[in-house]
Each structure stands twice: as C-alpha cells, then as structure tokens.
Design brief:
With 186 residues, this protein is an alpha/beta fold. The protein has a single domain, classed as Phosphoglycerate mutase-like (Rossmann fold), CATH 3.40.50.1240. The protein has a five-stranded mixed beta sheet with strand order 3-2-4-1-5. Helix 1 packs across helix 2. The radius of gyration is 16 Å and the shape is globular.
C-alpha cells in the first residue's frame, strides 16, 4: 500500500482557504511550526500498517514531516527530490490572495514556466513518475505501507494520476488540502 500524506502546517499556510496571511510556499525553505509537528505525529498514528519506508523531498517542511513519521513508525526515511514542490519561482512567498489568479493561469497553461520556476507540466510528470515508481515497488502489498510526503498540489493531482489522465485535466484551484490528510493508493 502506498500512502500519501501532506506535510504538516507551516507559518506560511497557517491560515486555510487562501486567507489574507496564507503565502505560496513553492520551493521556499519553510520549516514546520509546532502545529505542523503535532499533525505529522497524528498522521503517523493514522497509518495503521507497518511502514516499509518513508519518502520525502529535502525541503524542510517535507523532510521534517518525513522524519517525524519515520521515527514514530521505526522506518527508514529516504529523500527523493522528484517529490519536491512545484517551483513557482518569483511567486514564492507572495500572498495567495494577491497572486491566485496568476497561479491558476499557469495551471491552465501547463507548458508555460513560472518566472524563474518550473512549468506545471514538467512538475506533474516528475511527481507522477516518482509516485508510480513507488507503486511499482509496493507491488500491491496491502500488509505494509510505503509513505510518501506530498504537497497540497500533489493531492489535487492524484485523481488525474490514478486514472492516468493528462495533466491538463487538473482543475486549477486555490482551495487547500487539509494538512495531515492521507490518501491511500493501491
């Protein structure tokens, strides 16, 4: 079983739903806050299966979430930067309210790269390749879990990935995936 868990809360996403204070993180090195550390530990307890290993990218929020879960579950923690967040370049650190329409434009035009960042299409293919590789490694084993630490944008893309749909079918949205949510993939 492959389990995807969103990283814990940071100061940049402490306000949900695109509130005044929520900021796009992109590739900024933002650590978890105390609430995010509690959420990571809570998520670890929800897995309910022995964990083979935990995979995260090296960004502080994902790495720390992965470390907390791996330590709690007694599993190794592996770094795979293919799971890195979408690099939105110059829009990183900007208010969601201020630039949400522009971010949505890049999702509707996935071949266009964010200024000094990734294109949504390149990011989607990188994420999809990594997730499918771990699904192949898992080989349908429903007695243990491989845990992937993911971003909210990855969660919103999972239905398209699971159906092997084209990335252009991803609905652009500023709606946030609740921190600590789990998605089970088989």
């Amino acid at each position: 079983m492959v389990v995807c868990i969103r990283h814990g809360q940071t100061e940049y996403n402490a306000t949900k739903g695109g509130g005044e204070s929520e900021l796009y993180r992109g590739n900024l090195n933002i650590p978890l806050n105390d609430q995010g550390r509690r959420e990571a530990l809570e998520a670890a307890g929800k897995i309910g299966l022995p964990v083979k290993f935990v995979v995260s990218d090296s960004s502080p929020r994902d790495w720390e979430t992965g470390e907390i879960i791996a330590h709690d579950r007694g599993a190794p923690h592996v770094i795979d930067d293919r799971l890195a967040p979408l690099d939105i370049g110059l829009l990183s650190g900007k208010s969601v309210k201020e630039v949400a329409d522009l971010v949505d434009w890049f999702f509707r035009n996935p071949d266009a790269a964010f200024p000094e960042g990734d294109s949504v299409g390149e990011w989607y293919e990188r994420q999809k390749d990594a997730i499918f590789e771990y699904i192949d490694v898992d080989d349908g084993d429903d007695r243990t879990a491989i845990v992937l630490i993911c971003q909210g944008s990855t969660f919103r893309s999972l239905p398209a990935m699971a159906n092997d749909d084209d990335w252009r079918l991803i609905e652009p949205t500023t709606e946030r995936v609740p921190t600590g949510d789990l998605e089970w993939l088989t």
